[in-house]
Structure formats: structure tokens, C-alpha cells
Amino acid sequence: MAETIYLSLGSNMGDRESFLRQAVHLLGSMAGLKLLARSSIYQSAPIDCPEGTPDFLNMVVKMDCTLSPEQLLDGTERLERDMGREMKGDNSVRVIDIDIILFGEQTFNNDRLTIPHPRMTQRAFVLMPICEISPRLNEPVTGAALSDLLGVIGSQGVLRHKANTHV
Prior knowledge:
The chain is of the alpha+beta class. The chain is built from 4 helices and 8 strands, in the order E-H-E-E-E-H-E-E-E-H-H-E. Helix 3 runs antiparallel to helix 4 (146-153). The mean pLDDT is 91.
């Protein structure tokens, strides 16, 4: 049975728009995934990164997924490596970063993966694009509307960079 998932994509190295476009294409061609919607691109300052780290371009994709959460994580990590990402988990400059934000209504927690993403409700660069493509979506643990949570944290300086027709 397919689950509706949300993935956050970010890039702060090189041709960031091109890397986002390539990641969306590669995700859409992965077995077990079907692209349903993609947000506009947003620009955000780096958080918890070394001084001088370039700004990120971020977006969210909504997909149907027939994979397990761990299979999806394996696939997204493989895609990151294939696109040139060298290290996962550090806050250095990166070609592409793909985070699993939501996996249907499921919660999941092990040493590799936590769903819902533990910092999603604190990050405008995640909430703004999700609310753009799914304005009535609720956080599965608390049931809180993501749009309400975005209202609490504000924009955090995140700006719309490009409309989704460019990705």
C-alpha cells in the first residue's frame, strides 16, 4: 500500500537549482516512488553551520511511496552519494541533502531514522514549502496544523526564490 511522504531537499553548493532539479528527477525515477507535487524553491540562511557557509536553496516534494521507511532512507542516501555528497550528518557545504520529513501518518524511530523529522516544526525552510503544497496538513503526533506551527515560528528569514515551474 502506498503512503504519502514528504521529502525536504536542500543544496548550498555549486549550481543549487540544477542540483535540486536533478534530485527531483532522480527521486521521481526511483522504483517505489511517484512524484505528486513539488514546492517552489526557497532560500534560507544556514542553521548550525560553520561561519561563511553559503545560503541554502530548499524545497519539498510530495510523493507516493511503496517502500518501507528504511528502504526509502537507503535510496535517498544512495542518491545523495551518487550526486556527490561526501558525508551525511555533518553541517558542511553539500551538493544535496534529502531528509524524510513525513511518512504518511507513521512514526518511526531507530538509530538511523526518526519520522516525523524531529526538527521539522522548528524549521521554516521545511514548513513553508510543505504548507505551500499541502496547506491543510497536520503533524501526525500532535495533530497540530503545520500552518499553525509555521505561524508560531514565523518565516525565520526564509524567502521564496523561484516558483515550482523552474524545477
